[in-house]
Design a protein that fits this description.
DNA Binding (I), subunit A
């Protein structure tokens, strides 16, 4: 039962301290006949303070441990997804880098890029090699993002990782 405006001057006795107090000194509680807690706010606060003194460290340790477990699960799930989807992860990194450089970000399909010879050195690119191998494949922006290039299909090419690092942010093709 919700207290009405006529209850404004009403009072109630606290079951803990046995002091008669106005209804405003009691928390709301729908299940009580008058719509208020049985203990006054002061007694509730005192009870909670004493409870926390006894159980506080245990509760804090439990919450801390649960947080650690949840973070560890999240890291493991993220790591598993990254390992299962290396191309999607690479594309996400490239898109973020392009957004931070305020470059135009378009639709990109890395599978559609030709993986023949490195346009910078002319040698063949081995798709089986993985980074950090210097001869592994690496996505290169023909016109670098730092020089006003866009992150679009027409501005991307596969190169060797070492060739891409040597090129840096130069626009010319020669490394």
């Amino acid at each position: 039962m919700e207290p009405t405006a006529s209850d404004a001057g009403a009072s109630k006795s606290c079951c803990a301290c046995l002091i008669v107090k106005p209804l405003d000194d009691f928390h709301r509680y729908k299940r009580a006949p008058d719509g208020r807690q049985y203990k006054c706010r002061d007694c509730c606060a005192e009870y909670q303070r004493r409870y926390n003194e006894v159980h506080g460290e245990k509760r804090a340790a439990t919450r801390l441990e649960q947080g650690r477990v949840n973070r560890a699960r999240g890291r493991l799930a993220s790591k598993a997804w990254n390992e299962a989807n290396p191309d999607k992860r690479r594309e996400a990194k490239l898109r973020r880098r392009a957004r931070l450089a305020a470059a135009t970000v378009g639709t990109v399909n890395l599978d559609a890029l030709s993986l023949g010879n490195c346009p910078l050195c002319g040698d063949a690119i081995d798709a089986t090699l993985k980074a950090p191998d210097l001869l592994s494949k690496s996505v290169d922006h023909i016109i670098p993002l730092s020089r006003g290039g866009t992150h679009e299909q027409s501005n991307l090419q596969w190169t060797h990782l070492i060739c891409n690092m040597r090129k840096g942010n130069r626009v010319n093709q020669a490394a």
